[in-house]
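Summary for the funding panel

The consortium committed to producing paired sequence-structure records for every protein in the target list. Below we show the first two records in order, beginning with the earlier of the two.
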Amino acid sequence: MKKIAFLLLCLLVSSFPANAQNNKIVIGSIDSLQSNILGEQRKIWVYVPDQSSNSIFSPQRYPVVYLLDGDGHFSSVVGMIEQLSTGGNNLCPKMIVVAIPNTDRMRDLTPTHIDVDPPYIDSSSAKTTGGGENFLAFLEKELMPHVEAKYPTAPYKMFIGHSLGGLMVMQAFVHHNSLFNSYISIDPSMWWDKQKLLKQTQKVLAEKQFAGKSLYLGIANTMEEGMSIKTVHKDTTRDSEHIRSILKLDAAFVKNKQNGLKYKSKYYPDDTHGSVPFITEYDALRFFFDFFPLKLTSKDYTDSTSLLADKYKNHFAQLSKKMGYDIKPDEWEINFLAYEILKQKHYKKAESMFKLNVDNYPKSFNVYDSYGDYFVTIGDKANAIVQFEKALALKENEGSRKKLEELKK
């Protein structure tokens, strides 16, 4: 890898420092809203990618991950997304994480009411079951509008749930499919209410279209010793009903490939019901965003033509099509690359990168200031003045003002 690639990697690594406050590393904040639907105050834990170190550049907007059993999975999911999307990685987009802690888990994460279901659910635990539809109404009509009004969201949503949370992910997928773009259902409790939702899912998968939607199903090893994934189908005991119901769900997805869903499942033989969320979420993110990475070669860095800018344009046009909304490369990344190319005296290539930022971020004073620096470097005083004046028209700043005054002497 050439020098410029190494420098870009160094910048990427250093551009996302931990958010340290009062000698503590902070990865998110606690927010809350009053829910009239649920009749209670609900807390949410929120992570937003840090933009503080790039304050002169245009702010970005991010897809949103809605995470059930939020307090139990927040730190791992945030860390995973940061690792895959920053520090030189572009394996998935930077994303906002909205984690939803429970107040009454049995109420909110079950789609139907049951009186008892031994040995899993006794009569005491079952009292408030069946509030799942109300909970999804809270998500759609109260939580999502709150998040979209307060945070820099993009129009792409992911839903993640484990166990009963995985059951609620399936409830949303089957009965409210317009709410989310992608779903991660982790070892879901499809046995619930005599497999009622499982039967509904089997029917819907055969009848509806799911083009543009993605779902990943993670399956843990919950079998008794001596059983295998091949023999458990023949078992009829209650002990294996959990995994058997999930395997039936998987079979229904595999059978109905005509519905356009982007689907994948994986059985994790070395993971239990409790350990399977982390590896499932990782594999799901890699599966959902297999199209996301921009793969650059040494030639992209050393070539003196405008091909690099064209490669960025084409890649982000494809990303926009896949994600369903307009996505542009980060202004700061293109800005950095343009200056490094300028240092190499590849002037045509540098200009194409500066112009890429001008086209993508016409309301940013910085793109004109940087483009002005390009014209100064090649000795084009007249065009440099034009660019610095455009920068100052958008925002008065000391840097552009000094450069302009120097050129007009």
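The next record, for a separate protein in the list, is shown here:
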Amino acid sequence: MSAATDGPPSAEAARRAVEAVWRIESARIVGALARYTGDFTLAEDVGQEALAEALVTWSRDGAPASPVGWLLATARRRAIDAFRRRSALDERYAMLAGQLADGEFSAGAAAAPDRPDDLPWDPDRVDDDVLALMFTACHPVLSPEARVALTLRVVGGLSSEEIARAFLVPAPTVQARITRAKKTIAAARVPFELPPPEERRERLGGVLSALYVIFTEGSTATTGDHLLRPDLAYEAVRLARMLAALLPADPEVHGQLALFELTAARFPARTGPDGEGVLLEDQDRRLWDRSAIRRGLAALGRASALGRGLGPYGLQAAIAACHATALSVRETDWERIVLLYEALGRVAPSPVVELNRAVAVAMASGPQEALSMVDDLVASGRLSGSHLLPSVRGELLTRLGRTTEARAEMELAARLCRNARERSVLLRKAAALD
């Protein structure tokens, strides 16, 4: 054995171990703590305190044999200390201490004498714990921004700094959102539990919406110097897979997972070696992730097989499937894409859907009809300030040979675009029209 192996554990090794355990198991840890304490905010706080203690202890002693059990036991002690400080809650503390002592064996904080190989939590409850955690983090009392931040924190296990980097906002802003979210949940007395079946469907929309925002920002960054933020997008994919495993009978959950998988499959071809964006027609489709495409098509198949018709996420996944299975832009089934966008416009109308339908119409029927649709959008003012509208209009004008107007639209789109990589593509297109 080398001297390096014989030496004391390093702080860096401890940090990597803590991060790995937390990223993989944070949802189950916080979910179990929330169920045991009955206090979502306390569960998240003591979980973070246990992480901080692990960094110190594991640096000195090395990672324990059961890292999850260690974190749960440490967080349990912190929770008991918190209740001890609330002198008016002595009775609740006694009940909690007894409940947690009984639950230590299933929670992994201690080994039962006759059952040393127990799982670190009750296998009959873990699904409900994680699902309850998702529904709590995305409760309707929270703002959309708070839902996203809290979901990434307590379900995804990301730090405030990681969330801040992902959305290009200061870390104190993210921390303030998370703190306010926890206070709002406490003030509203939101119970840590699965909502009743009659409310679950309505509340699920908030969970899906938060995941969609996370994935969308990762797949096309709103601002900054990178077109993609793969780490953020893949975190949304991981959470979507978890949600699909917990809610196997919901078609929209599978539809969203299919959309994420099929869209992420194109990531390897969407940027060049220098990080510049590569347009769909120029992408090397051999670089697309075929495993992700297979997973996406399988998820879309499950969504369809449930027999309730595709919802907004499922319809978007069906559109993504048309691209993923085509050999080229020319061989893409644009007529089907037009029909899918028409269906999407009926169930989830928005100006962006209309704009995308115009692009599909241009590919299926020619630019003139599409330009009329885009001009109607311009007149409505519903996408005012967005770079998407002038960029599409510029493309259509280029195809119609109206290069002077097209260049002006591309330059306008570049001025409105906040992403440096996307902006450079637009400027390159404008320059090519000189």
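Regarding this second record: The radius of gyration is 25 Å. The chain is about 70% helix and 0% strand.
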